[in-house]
């Protein structure tokens, strides 16, 4: 009887594992919101309308278009170098831009905000592939942004001609200071990142942890409370194409994993 009980337990465990794997499998026929429920819960989409102007919209389970779609789904074909069902962000160079910017974006904007000077421990993490680069060879794929117009990009994570670079504005409106974190990261190579924001009454620290092709990097940046006083901050993820010219190029970014947590 003991052997039977062990066998039943083993079979039950295998069944549970199979069901769990099926539940989390990414289906190439599904829209991004079906494969990644975090999108519908936690983000809005900034993309383009039929006139190539920027629009922001709620993400539904079925939302999918020529700029925001699942890898291998629809008429876009399949990028075989990246996982099936990954979220695809396509931003043609020279398309419309948001206010106070010259560059086109297909990006996720987190719904939840936080403020420097309060206590929090928040994190956005993802697995990213730069699938296609524009003529400038520069794409921002993750950010901590502010809602104050002009100069409120607190932290930007960009791929620039094979390097992964952090862009930091210590105070609102500062010139951006850039730090190269990894180099030799080619197209279609997976970049795993964790972007951690920790706030206290005296200020805020942002830690970025990266890995790609066996290489790792980690760095922490400090932000004084007064430098960002009262500005609502939020995470972003996706494809902010750093090519403002209609030169026929486009940027493609894929996310095979995305999560955001607030404490």
TrEMBL record:
It comes from the Bacteria. Residues 84-260 form the Alginate lyase domain. GO terms for molecular function: lyase activity. Keywords: Lyase, Signal. Residues 1-25 form the signal peptide. Coiled coil: none annotated. This is Polysaccharide lyase family 7 protein. It comes from Cedecea davisae.
